[in-house]
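[audit] Reproducing an earlier prediction to check determinism. Same input, same settings, fresh worker. If the tokens differ from the archived copy the diff job will pick it up downstream; this log only records the rerun itself.
[audit] input (481 residues):
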Amino acid sequence: MVLYRADGTLYPLRESATETKLREMAPFSEVEEIIREATQQVEDQLKLEDKGWLNLSQTTGEVVTEAERVLNVKLSRLYYTKDPLGAQSVRLWTDYTFGPGLTWKAKDDQTQKVLTAFWNAPINQPVLSVRGQRKSSDKDLVDGEIFFALFLGAKGQAAIRRIDPLEITEIITDPDDVENVLYYKRLWSDRLSTPHTSIYRSTTNIKGEPTTDLQGQTVSHTDDALVYHLTFRTITQRGNPLLLPALDWIKQYRRFLASRIAIMLALARFAWKTKVAGGQTAVNAIKAITDDKEINAGSQLLENMGSDTQPIKTDSGARNAYQDGRQIKLQVAAAVGIPEQYFGDISIGNLATAKTVELPMMKMFQSYQAVWADTYRDIFQLVLAHNNIPPEKWYVDIDFPAIAPADIAQAAEAIVAILNVIPELAALDDVMQIALITLGIDDPAEVLDQLAKEAKANPEIALTKALKQFREVIKVHGNGH
């Protein structure tokens, strides 16, 4: 048996009895194998019971081998790029989660100043702009994980970049605590194809606590970067792509549709059949009349008793094919957590089902938003600590756009109702930021700064003006809802 080390090298390993049993009972990754097994006799399948159940609690290590993980990432990238179902799945996750981009507001003025410089720095725009936020989400979903490299420079400066997950070959942890990640090993090549090996400290190991890697070598020297690791859908160290459970089914759906197209093209080759009374000479004469000639629509066919022309029946079984294809597509929908009406067939959805079906989907995207909020909050705290901002001033309010459009009118009406009872809340930054996001303001931070300046000059007029404009927008949303 041959296994892969974390650095990509091969080494032989004798397979134990437990591993042999696991390998024999493990499901095949390809749907073709599952289909082939389904055609066997029931008695053959029941023979597996004679071997007994496998105690999974006795197994250790990753569920997916390193070689399989690399293959999964490459397949996920391919299907995301070329397949409509794969692209739509990732697009919907990112669209519902980030929309026009997240917004944030710090309580402390110095904290706001430091983070604004970091957030708006031109060098950080590939990662922190709206375009960068969406790209980070896509990469996390497609690759199953994302590695942020944070470079902390002089005078509080900080730059952030992404590292290709395929370049991270080893996650080095505390030997006694696998959850305590200390270092990341990266094998990469520059634009001149020169290979490099880099060791980065984890964001939880800023001081560089010494340890050893899988080869027993002491890790002491590290490159000048801190790495923040965000995983997706995993119970182990490395993440799994969103499309991983759907890859086999997407493949079969593509093959199914290709087969349907082949049937339709074959049926389209011939539309009429003609029976001719006579020998080959008579057949050739009839054939010469229309062979390689375009017949206009609505033309009249005249023939004698020597021939009989009838249309070919072209029943392609489309109704049954629709149901068959739908069963395959349902597996893709279940794998990515998105109802089937979002994959091109809106005829199967209605308002009644949308309210019940979309609730789990909203919870799923809200959870994904919360994960990203934690991620950005952790990165903010690293930047603030680098700028010597005390921890008690680290609080930052991070908000994402509303997931469902219908929430806009409801949230706006709720805010107005609350402000009518407690108008003092209108002066709070949190309430104003939520209100601006609800109204669809592109840059709430800039608007808040303008409102703050106007409020200092004339507080009563500023509050009255803001509430009046807010109510007008609510009225528009209410009439259009």
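[audit] rerun output stored. Observation attached for the diff report: The chain has a mean pLDDT of 79.
[audit] end
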